[in-house]
Structure formats: C-alpha cells, structure tokens
Amino acid sequence: MGNSYAGQLKSARFEEALHNSIEASLRCSSVVPRPIFSQLYLDPDQHPFSSADVKPKVEDLDKDLVNRYTQNGSLDFSNNLTVNEMEDDEDDEEMSDSNSPPIPYSQKPAPEGSCTTDGFCQAGKDLRLVSLCMEQIDIPAGFLLVGAKSPNLPEHILVCAVDKRFLPDDHGKNALLGFSGNCIGCGERGFRYFTEFSNHINLKLTTQPKKQKHLKYYLVRSSQGVLSKGPLICWKECRSRQSSASCHSIKPSSSVSSTVTPENGTTNGYKSGFTQTDAANGNSSHGGKGSASSSTPAHTGNYSLSPRPSYASGDQATMFISGPPKKRHRGWYPGSPLPQPGLVVPVPTVRPLSRTEPLLSAPVPQTPLTGILQPRPIPAGETVIVPENLLSNSGVRPVILIGYGTLPYFYGNVGDIVVSPLLVNCYKIPQLENKDLEKLGLTGSQFLSVENMILLTIQYLVRLGPDQVPLREEFEQIMLKAMQEFTLRERALQIGAQCVPVSPGQLPWLARLIASVSQDLVHVVVTQNSLAEGISETLRTLSEMRHYQRLPDYVVVICASKIRGNEFCVVVLGQHQSRALAESMLTTSEFLKEISYELITGKVSFLASHFKTTSLGDDLDKLLEKMQQRRGDSVVTPFDGDLNECVSPQEAAAMIPTQNLDLDNETFHIYQPQLTVARKLLSQVCAIADSGSQSLDLGHFSKVDFIIIVPRSEVLVQQTLQRIRQSGVLVDLGLEENGTAHQRAEKYVVRLDNEIQTKFEVFMRRVKQNPYTLFVLVHDNSHVELTSVISGSLSHSEPSHGLADRVINCREVLEAFNLLVLQVSSFPYTLQTQQSRISSSNEVHWIQLDTGEDVGCEEKLYFGLSEYSKSLQWGITSPLLRCDETFEKMVNTLLERYPRLHSMVVRCYLLIQQYSEALMALTTMASLRDHSTPETLSIMDDLISSPGKNKSGRGHMLIIRVPSVQLAMLAKERLQEVRDKLGLQYRFEIILGNPATELSVATHFVARLKSWRGNEPEEWIPRTYQDLDGLPCIVILTGKDPLGETFPRSLKYCDLRLIDSSYLTRTALEQEVGLACCYVSKEVIRGPTVALDLSGKEQERAAVSENDSDELLIDLERPQSNSSAVTGTSGSIMENGVSSSSTADKSQKQSLTPSFQSPATSLGLDEGVSASSAGAGAGETLKQECDSLGPQMASSTTSKPSSSSSGPRTLPWPGQPIRGCRGPQAALPPVVILSKAAYSLLGSQKSGKLPSSSSLLPHADVAWVSSLRPLLNKDMSSEEQSLYYRQWTLARQHHADYSNQLDPASGTRNFHPRRLLLTGPPQVGKTGSYLQFLRILFRMLIRLLEVDVYDEEEINTDHNESSEVSQSEGEPWPDIESFSKMPFDVSVHDPKYSLMSLVYTEKLAGVKQEVIKESKVEEPRKRETVSIMLTKYAAYNTFHHCEQCRQYMDFTSASQMSDSTLHAFTFSSSMLGEEVQLYFIIPKSKESHFVFSKQGKHLESMRLPLVSDKNLNAVKSPIFTPSSGRHEHGLLNLFHAMEGISHLHLLVVKEYEMPLYRKYWPNHIMLVLPGMFNNAGVGAARFLIKELSYHNLELERNRLEELGIKRQCVWPFIVMMDDSCVLWNIHSVQEPSSQPMEVGVSSKNVSLKTVLQHIEATPKIVHYAILGIQKWSSKLTSQSLKAPFSRCHVHDFILLNTDLTQNVQYDFNRYFCEDADFNLRTNSSGLLICRFNNFSLMKKHVQVGGQRDFIIKPKIMVSESLAPILPLQYICAPDSEHTLLAAPAQFLLEKFLQHASYKLFPKAIHNFRSPVLAIDCYLNIGPEVAICYISSRPHSSNVNCEGVFFSGLLLYLCDSFVGADLKKFKFLKGATLCVICQDRSSLRQTIVRLELEDEWQFRLRDEFQTANSSDDKPLYFLTGRHV
Known about the structure:
Plays a major role in early metanephros and genital development. The protein is of the alpha/beta class and 1923 residues long.
C-alpha cells in the first residue's frame, strides 16, 4: 500500500489514536483538532520510509481503514497543514495490490535504448528550464507552457506543453479530466495520459503519476523574453485552511482535478461510490505482479446521474446508468441511458470527513460513460439488492433523496427506484465570500453539524404533512435560518465552547422523538454499519407490504457509524410524494417525450379501457350512440334558445346572429403606460448613444427598419402581424406605402423555425446594405427555447433547439453597428443570470401598475398574477383562483392504481371523462350530475347555456391547457365526438390550439364571427384567438410553453388542472397563469366584492359613494370579508351590468354570477395595443407626442426625453369598458382552475407583492449559484429581482448564455452594448409599446435630421414706405449709382433686437406713443422656432458623420492632432495701442492657404485672391467664425454648405477653449485670441478679426506688388459668420395668376457657396463696405421682397470690406449689440451697407454656448445658496462695502443699462419724440427708450435732429472727437445725463473738457462704479440733471 504504513505502527496504537481523534472532534466545537492521520504519520521524528513496517491484519484494515480512504484511496489528510506541507505531503497514495509492505510505484520499464537521464526526455532532449529559458518554443494554439517537478531533481523545473483545457482556471475550477500534452524536447505530440507522459519525460515517480501533483507552475516570459517560473497552478479552489472545507480531502479519480464547480451547475456534485481495490477485498487477482495494470487500482469514475447527460446537473438525476464507467471527457455523452438488468448501478456518494470540518463541498465534474465494465466484487455491507417486482407489488416507486454520506450500490431491479439529488446541495456548505456570509448573517466558522442537519430534515418532513412535496428552495431557507440562529447564539455566548452540540448517542432518540408527532408519516431507521442496511430493510418491508397496510410517506435512514460518523438519506415512499419527486426530475421536454412514449407503446391501454365506461358503469360509446339515435337528424339550436329546442342542421347553419357593432377590434389606441415605457426605451437608446463607448451613433441614421422574431406559434405570428397592421407603424416609418402595407407586413415577422435561416440572411443582407438605416431586431418572448446551438447539435432534441441562439448571438448581429437587439419577455429570469449578455442598465421594466394615482384616470386596470393571488383574500364566494378538490381526490385514487403511467396522462384521461360526462349530464343524463365535479359542471353549464340567452349568440371561451400534443389531440377527438353525438355541434366549437398549426374553425362558426364583425371580406377567416371573441368554444391549448398569445375578452375559464408538480420552476408555473392575465374594469379591483359577488343581500347594502370615485378604495393588500362595508364605484350597481334578476337566473351555479356573459378580458392594453393610424385625431396626438420630445432631443447628448409632454395626455381611454350583449358591462378577469400543487404555490400569498412561486428556481435552464442565499423578498420590484437573479443564478451548460463566461483578462463579462431587454407582466401591452418605441425612435432620428431655426418676423417694419429710388425688380445685383442715392434705414429690423432700444428716426417721432407695445423688463422670452428638415446644403455640428465629409472632418486617428502646426502672428493695433500676438493652428492639409518665410518656419501672411479671379470651384473671401462654448454644437462643418469646393475657413476661439475645439475639429484652421480676451465678448473677436484682416490685406498687397499686381486688385473682403448659421435660401416673387390673389413667394434651399459666389460677383463690389442677406422667416411676404436690395442693418452673416472700413472699428469691449453699433458707425462714415433681400439665412436655435449670459456670482462666495443677484446690484457707489462680483466690468455695465432706463433716463420712457442722445455709440438701454445715434466725427452723415428736444445724454468712453459743441443740442427740462469712463480721473477730465458743469448739475452721490474689485478695473459713471 505505497508508503502509507511507514513508521512503527502497532494496530493498537492506531486504534487508540483513532478513538482519541474521534472523541476530541466530538467534544470540541471550535478549534480544529489535529486529525488522526497527521498524529500517526506526520510525527516529525518518524522517518517516512522505515523498512520495519508491520503488517496489519486484513480484518482490522477492513474495519478501520477502508472507510477513512477517500475515493482514490488517498488518505484523508487534515486540513490544518500549512500550504507548503500540503504541497509536498499531498501524496495520493494508492492501496497496493497485495497485503505486503508497500513497494515503490512500479512503472513500465523504459523502451530499449532510450535515454533515462533525469531532466531529459526519452529521446534524450534537454527539458530543464535553465537550458530552455532563452529558446523560442513553438506551441500549438490552446496550449500553455507549464513546469513539472521531478522528485529526483528538486532544484530543476522541467518544461512541458499542456492543453490549457486540462488545467484549472484562476479559481481552481473547470479543468477537464484527463490530460493532453506535448514534449518540448523531441516534439512528440499527443500524450493522452499523464502516466505515459511522465514516463516519457523521466519523472521516475514512486507514486501514482498525477497531473495535479507534478505540474506545479505556469511558465511566463519576462519583458526581456526570458522564460521563467510563474504563478503556481491553482489546482485547488481554496488554499485558506482555516474555515473552508478541505479541498483535497476528497480526491477524485486518478486524473480528475478536484475542481469545485458552482453548486448544481455543470456537474453532478456527488462522488461516485467507493470501490476498494482487489487487495483490500482480499481478492488479489494479480498476485502482486509488477505490471502497470495491476498497480493501478480500479477507479470508479464519476457517474452521470442524469437521463439527459448533456444537461447533467445536480438538480436532475435518475438511476439510469449502469456499470462503473471509464474515465471520459465532460463533453462526451453516454450511449444508452437504459440500465442493463442485473448490473451494478453505482450511486453517488458523499464521503464523510473527520468530524471537525464543516460539510464538504467539492463536487466533481461528471464524466458520463459509454462502456460497461464488469462489476467488481463489493463488500456486502455496501450494496442493496432491489427486490423484484417492487413497483408492481407495492404500487410505489421509492425515491431515495441523497443525504449526507456514501450511498451504497444498487443491484437487481434498479428500474423500480429513483435516486434524487433534490436536497443534496442543501447539505453541502458552499464556498461563499465573507462579505456574502455577513450579508446572510453568518460567520465563516459556524456551520451545521450532520446531527443538526438530520434533525432539521426530519422536522421539515414532519411539517410537510401528507399533501405537500419537499421543495428544495423551502428547505434551503430552513437551513439558512438554522445557521443564522446558531450564529446569533454563538455571538450571544461569545465563546463557542458552551454551545452543546447533539452527540451521536443522542441522535437516534432525538430523531425518533421528532418523527413521533408525524402520525406515522415519517419513520426513522437507525443502522450501525452502513446506510445499505437501512435502505435494504426499507425496500424489503415495502415489497412485502400488502396494499391495505399504511406506508409511511418518508423513511429517514440514519447510519450511526462509529468510524464514519453519521450518514443519512431519505427514502420517500408516499404514493403522492414519490411520484411528484420522480416526475419533477424530468424537464418539460423529457416528460413530454415520456408521455408520447407511453402513448405510442400502448402503455395507456389499461387506463383507456377504464375510461370506456361512464362513472355509472355504462358503456360510454353505446350510450352516446343511443342518444344520437333518439335525437335523429336534428341538432340543438345554435343560439337564442334552450338546450331542449332542436332544429335541422340546415336551419342551424343558416341562423344569423344580430350584428355586434360594439367590437373595438380595429380601432387602435395606445395607452399612457405604453407611451411611458416606449419613452423609457427611447431614453435608454439615447443613453447607449451618449455613453462614450461609441457603440451607437444615432446621428448616423435617417431611417428605422425592424424585424420581429417570435417563437414557433402560427397564432402568435398572425397576432403580431395584426398589431403591426393596425398600428400603422410600417407607413409611419416610411417602410411601406399605404396601399401595400397590409400584404407586406409579413416580411417583418419571422418564426423561429427551420426556415428562419434563409429569412434571417435576407434581413442581415438588408442590414449590411443600408448603413444609414437603424435596424431593430425585436426578439419577442425571448425566454422561450433559449438553448445554445452547441448543446442542440449534440443531443437529439427539439428541432427548434438553439435557433434563437444562432440568430440573436451570431457574430453578424453582435458586430452590426446599425442593429439594435430588443429582447422582450414577461419572464426574463433566464436572461438575468451571472452570464447575462444584457447589461442591467439596459433593462427597461414596465412601470409599476398598482400606483393609486393612475387609477383615477384610467378605465381599465391590469389584472395579473399577484392580483390573482391577492383576490383569494377578497372573501368572495366564487374566487378567481380555484383548486378542484374533488378532481384531485379522483386523480389520487387513479394514480395509485396506475403507478407506471405519468400523472399527466392519468389527469388528462380523467379530465376528458369529466367534461364528457358534464356535457351528458347537462343535456340528456341528469343522473351523471353527481359524478362530475361541481367545478366542471358549472363551467360546461355556463359554456353551453350562455349562447341560448339572446339573439346575438355570443358566449364564452374555455381554455383547457394540455401540454402534450398527443394528449391534446386525443382530448379534442373525444370531446368532439361526445359533442356531435349530443347534437351540440352548432352550439359551441372545439378548437385545437396547436402552436404549429393555424386555427381551424367550422364554416358555420366563421360565418357567425363574420356577421358579428360586419364588414369583413368574403375570404376572412379567424387567425388569432382574439378573432374568436364572443364565440362559445373550448380551446385545447397545447405545446410545451404558452407563447404569449392574447386571448379575447370572452375568455371566461382557464383550466390548468393538468399543470402539476412537473412545473416547479417560476417561469413554467407563472407563464401558465399568464394565459389569464388581462385588463379589467376598474370596479373589479376597486370593489371586488361588488363587482364579482353581488348576492341580493349585498346589493341592498352596497353604498354608492359619490366622492370616492377617484381613489383606490380597496387596497389589494387588505383582505375584505363578505360582510365588510362594500363601497361601490360612483354610479349605480346597474352600471356593472348586474341585476338581481340575472343573479336569480341560475341559483345552483357555482361560478361567477352569470350576468357577466362576456367579460372583456383583454381589451384595453392588450399585448401591443398600438397607436391608431385611423382618424386624423389620433395621428395628430401622436405627432404631438413625438414632437413633444422637444428640441432637446435634437442632439443625441440629451438622453432623457421630456416626459411632461402635452401629447399623450390627450390619448383616449375607451369610454365604455366592454361591449357585451346588454349594454356596458364590467370586463372581468377569467376564472383559473389549478391543480393542487400549483394552487399551493400561487394561492398561498402571505404578504408582499409576489406569490410563493417567486421563490422557486426561476427557470429550468438556470441553476442557483449557492444553496446559501438570501430569500427573494416578496416586495421586490422587477429591477431588484433582476439584480437578485444576476447575483444568485448561473446559466446551465445548455443555455445560450453559458458561453458568456468571465473575461479572464479584465474579470468582467461581455455585455452586448446594443442589446436591450423589455420586461413586463404577461399581456400588459408590450407589443404596442415596442411598436410605439419604433415610431418615436424614427421621430427622434428625424429630429436629429431636423433643425430648430428661428422663425420671427422683422420688427419695426413699415411696409407703406416706398423706396424713394425705384429699383427694377428681379435685378441680380444692385446698381451702385441708384443704390448710393437710397437713404440708410437706421431702424434695426432683426427680431433679436425686439427687446432693445429703438434707434431714433424722424418717422419714429411721428409715432403715437400709445401704439408702442409696452413690454416690461421680463425674463429672456422664448424665441419662436420652427423645425425644418436639414437639406444637403446644411452646416453641421460634430454629431454629423457621413462618408463624404469624413476627409473634411478627419477624425481618423489621434496622430492627426500632431499634424497641425502652431504659428504666432504679431501685428500692432492703433486702437489697442499695443502689439497683438495671435496664434494660428494650421493643419498640414491647409498650409497652402498661407505664405511662409523662405525657411518655411515663419508665417508671413494668408493668401488672398484678386478681384478679377473667376474660379467657379472656390469662393474668394476667407470665412471667419467666432465661436465660444460650442465645440460640439457649433455648426462649423461647412463641407456640405460649400458643396465640397475649396474654401478658407478659420475658427476664431478663445485661448482657454482651444484644446477642446482642436479635439473636435482637428482639420480646421484655428485663430486663437490672446489670453487677455478670455473673458471678452463677441465684440473683441470681431474687432480682432477685422484688424487682422486689414493687416493681412496690407501684407498681401505688398507681397503681390512685388509680383507686379496693383494694390487695389487684391480682394479686400472677408466673410464674418456666426456658428449658428445652418441653411441658406433664395426667394423669388411668383407672378400673381389671372385671378386676383396674394402674390406668392417661392423659396428654395441653396448652398452657402451659391450665396457667396453670387454676392462676390456684384459689379463694383469694392465700393460697398458691408454686404449681407436677410433673416429667414416663414412669414416672408412678397412685400418684404418688393425691393431686391435694402440699405439697412445686416447681422450674423456679412461680407466685410476691410479696406473701406479701415477706420471704422468694432467696439472690442462689447458683449451685446456690437453689430448694430458697427453698422451705425459705418453708415455715418458715409459707407454703403447693402442687404440682398432675395437671399435669406436660417439660424439654428443652439441651446448651449455662444452669447449665453455669464452666471454672475459674488467674487467671494459666502454661502452656496445665495439669492440671484439683481441687475441693479451690478453697480455700487465707489469705495462702498458692496458685494463685489466676479464678472467683467463691461458686461456688468451693459446688463445694468438694459434694466436701468427708469432710473437713469426717466424722461425718456415711452417718449420716442424725445430720445436719448448717444454720441458715437449704440447701447441697449431698455426697450422703453429710443436712442438717437449721432457721430462726432467731422463730415459724418447723421439723422436730422432739428427741433428735437432730447430727454437724456449718454456719453460712453468718448474720445477727443467729442467736444464742447454738445451745447448745440436741446434738452428737455429735467433731462438726465450719464457719462461713462474707464476710471475716476478720466471721468473728472471728461466733465471738465466738455464743460458739462455749465448745463448739468452733478451731486457727489451720483457717482457710481460697476461692482468689480479694483483688480478687475471697474468702469465709472456719473449721472446728472439738466438745469
């Protein structure tokens, strides 16, 4: 036995140590005692290889040792060694094959002639790291270099190449079993066994070769390329030896790495049974020969316990595997799942450890197996022989729940037992992070002992009672609570030692004590030797039992072994429980296969023959025949008559019902919640676009296209098509023409079937071909069939397997930048695992529906799962959620009789019989009434009697849910046969709802539906369930899952009695009840007792409260009993359509009162009610809704659309909730009949919003991460639930998300950036919501293609004035002779001046003062804007990208940044009185526009063209655009506006903003203003542009003069243009046609190039100073275009002649009105300003940057929350203690003047005859005042002010031209003066120089300064009064 007997070991000493160890571990509760083996073998004084070993007796060995060996025979080393000891002492010794002392591990001798030197391979090549560290080693992809340690060369590491799949990941997990490696030395490849490989590289081992032991390190290359020893290979999950379970204490078989996988994830989580070696069995068959085969003991591999190995997991396991397996890979699957009789069936076992450790949690990767080995002899104590005919004799197939410890082998009739791992993971304590443990209220050290776990299990089983089945999730919570209690108790005691654990001796009687209260339902069997004894005993008793004897439901088998400690398992014998547990282990697909197998093989024949007779014992078929003969040819009247009235079939077919005009099928509304959710989706898309990840660029797209992928359901396809057609979305998105949209809709909906591949390829081709279209792939019901492609190809599963994965997760979809994926699901849990591909921030959840305030305004409320649960507390006599107890009793009786059939088969047969007999009972055989359950009887009664009550013939729908297609077809045939024989075939229809086929409805029923609908075409047939509204029918709904089909309002009953214990996941259960979810009348929820249960007595008491109609009266949380005061809704009870007479109709009815004949279940927000395209009204509202996204959606940077928009509020809720047969009725929720198992989970809602089903496993394709986890809180919102599932669930191996594992490099998961998830309860209206989303997404893209431009009429216009100089209309250019004779119009017409001071003209003096609108100083008003589509000639901001202007924008790479050069340019300015240094940043590509010095370093000038140049592909004038604060939003991309031709464009930016502008506009020339202008206004920029341009003109003239060109030939113009100019138009006046009408104006969009080239071609252009164009307005009239040219102010976009205006300067101090000021100055200098009226400019409303006001703050902030500072605080008395402000002095002054006219110029207010006289300046001093501008320059032209008395005088920074001749102006008495100067001394000098004190009176207190500190150079001004 290897060297395990080393040391002087007497067996007595061994026993003593063993007992001491056990005793110590039992006594101790805190400190880990030193286990037995470390005491015996690791004593330092003992030499490990002493030769004087003593043979122990085989018996002792058997008794004591065997059970201490773990699976590989390795010794159970303690877990308190240090890491290093563990590294070396982890020798996994094997028991040798004889009883002799150990011999070294014998290995095959090396082949002849091969090298055996240590450190070299058998081919003689060196493998040592020292010699290979500099070599370039070539290794195949997927391999890693690792270092192996040879025991003979401790100082060396040998280099090997190993396939990394066989190595563990960073957490010590996921290494494949086995080995695959290559020799680096000789290059030999393909070693498949580590043993073979270790021989080849000469490891010369003394022990069994193990990769875990000998492959020690990863090898890494350093930065110098040297190969060196890297990190240790992490074979164990955890190295911390204190708290967690010992990882190496259970060894997997020889080359299985002990990977710990996530609990019940991909592995089975149990170890295979322990087989001893032959030697240990005393069967030394090999006689100690030193061959390799004899020395390797027979390992049992790891057994797959699952009938579908590809899904093998800890949650499902059955006993279907036989024979110990060979070692295989995880990816290989077993051949035959059926057991071979008589072979051993290994059963997983969990080995106990020494008692000191917490429970073991080391599941091993399963290796399913193919070959069947010969069974090895096994000690009798470890086997159980399953008795023959166990199932037949006892009628029970026992289920053995694996507990804790080693399960024995089972022989014999193993098909009759099932081994279930249901609770096994509850007994393993998972490895949890400390922080997670703290959250759970646990400490790492305190876990439960086995004894406690046994007692808890028994307690749980006792508590379950006879009806319930153990639920894993329930038990996990019990275990968690118990641990939390222990932790609390331990903390309370502070010292763990005082906590007395249950001793093994006490365990049996404590266990029996607990079980004694169970009324014999739980038995405890205690054995001494092994569990096998107890199990055998139990099975034997079972097989010998007589049927009448009562069995316990559970037998708990405890093995109280002294050696192994306690082990236990539970044998479930209860008829109901064992069946439920066995069936719940199969997945839905598996049990459906099982059912079809039972039907095909005829196993059901006994059952079928049982149901051939009625409950009274008559032969059913004969009885029906008899009834048919008695009736003869006639049939029961189809409607409007009793069941006894008969007519001929011809008459029946010809009966036409009255038309029902109330149908609201076609009118489509979209409701407020749907709008809100659509907006949430849109805002999430904007958030993705804004998130810097560059995964979505919304500015790129101009169109939206979509495809909707739905599961394989024909009805769902048709339903979705109907929604698309009714919503009009195809026309709205511009995808189809109005006429053809109906037919074309089909290409937008695709089913997940085998044809999807081709259709999807067509779609993806469209995606690739249309890069400017944003495609949306909607994956509806995305939780269905979300299996991975890989698992689908390996297992023979459904054809649809993996299709969704193939489509949604294919590479093209992930990479397409113009494709958004929207997954829509009511049960999204399977998409919310740790491996989810959707970021949790991209989930959009339906808005919480149960908020009180919504209820007031909406007719319909959603009635979903939690409302159903809560309705049980309403206390009404006929609840909405029911369990048919009578039916359940019948089922149980039958199940006992047919133990071999699946319970669903039995239930289905019974259900068919129930409905058949109910039909017969109600028509012909009243004697059968007592044999139908009252539930079934009342449903059928309602179904067949309701059409008879009136002429419309409308009735109810009943859904019977039968998941198995074969059973459903059987049910349809049987029921149809019974119906037809009873003559009811015209009364109600029976429809098979098979997802794979279309609906088929008998022609006479189609005719009836058509006549109700009225206007349907001849060939119309019902295609969706909603089309069946009002048709009395039974729909037998089949298929694995319900797929989201919407049912009509006439659905009244939903029979889910077949949905049983096989549906134990949250999704499976909830989606079944989801069938019945719908919108109901408000009354139902507000006063359920009134609406649903009005017996006569309560009608009288129902108080009608007038004032309560707006609030939610019945809180859903509060139970309300029948007798509590019932509050009705406003209005009388008759409104609900309930009258006492109708209640009396059928007194014996047990279901809802019959007055609700057709509850409108799914009116209102049906799944996907969508916006009405019918009627202009709705269309209008929609447009409004989209427009109301508001201007802020124009850029993609605003991610939240405004929700307070006016649009949607006006959308109509339907006025009448339901259109029934008699007036308006309440829409009611359908009644749902459940099986007992489902009822207990859905009906038992204790508190909170969610029913108990929410704590189940969320979906069969996911697994819990750990059995220790917090409970899903019942009040969690869906967002919180999502986060919970993302933390606590994992995708299983066959799940499509399984492959999305952690990225090892970054430690994060890959979320797909363009994928969203929309979740909302079933039937809440998600389809309508996402169709609306598509619509508003398109609107928003259009908004991005639209621009808001100012649309304001000119101000101060007087169209009556006729130009004195007549201009001939239609002239392209002005004639300078006649133009210069026109007077200049000094009035400012630009609408942005509407709140500024008027400029005085003689005409203004004649205006009556009352006419002028008084506009008090107000907040900056909202200027009028209008939305215009951008055209191909627009100027763009940075959000525009297209292929054509990519070169122009040049974003290619960061390296481009360095391609531009910085040049200083200095010139002197007389105005500034100093040198100015500007910087040019010139990209390489633009250098041709400049002249550099010979050395090429120094910038000399900017090239200018000649006046005579005629180049059609260029504009001559350089374009300057000053811009500030708009690096992203400024319209600086002129590529399209210039039609791509050559032009020179310079951005003028402030120094501090330069880096930003440079980043966004790397290919633009920048002109950077000096730092001193960082706070300056736009006046400074314009001043410097003009100064620079004049200086440059002189330089160019000098340069070109040397080339012989005359100075006056150089082009003197520049364009100065704002950064918000977006579009240019040309206008022409259309000739009026013959009939007298308004002359029209036609306008056309033109490019900036066209405008500039036209203006530059003006004859004698050099004689004009400024040329401009007018501002666009939608109200441009032919009147304003009468004169093609005006001599007036021009703004925003001007051609400036720098030569003529050399001496007219912009005021560089100015922030406001600098252009009007400059125009007035230019005009007074006698220069010509010309405006071209046939061109107009559109200016974009840009919300950021530009002339936006500074926020004026105090210089020293005292507190954060200061009141806003008022304009009058912008000035103060000099040297006062006033709050000083942090703003430029000039800015404060201009802002002050705008608001101070009342203070400064009281006489001027509204007195336009007496304006304020302003010398050399135009300043805005408020709109109430007119300013008369007078220039002081000699020879200047000024307005005539003869006889004008001025009301004030404004002197602003006046220069030496202003002299004492001011005295010639006349002033009113009391006129006021304001003199503004740079500082106090110049203020005094000015007053003296101008002799102002002669006429004006000053007071000391009239001196002011702007509220700046002295460092900020305040401005000073003095006021005075005229005397």
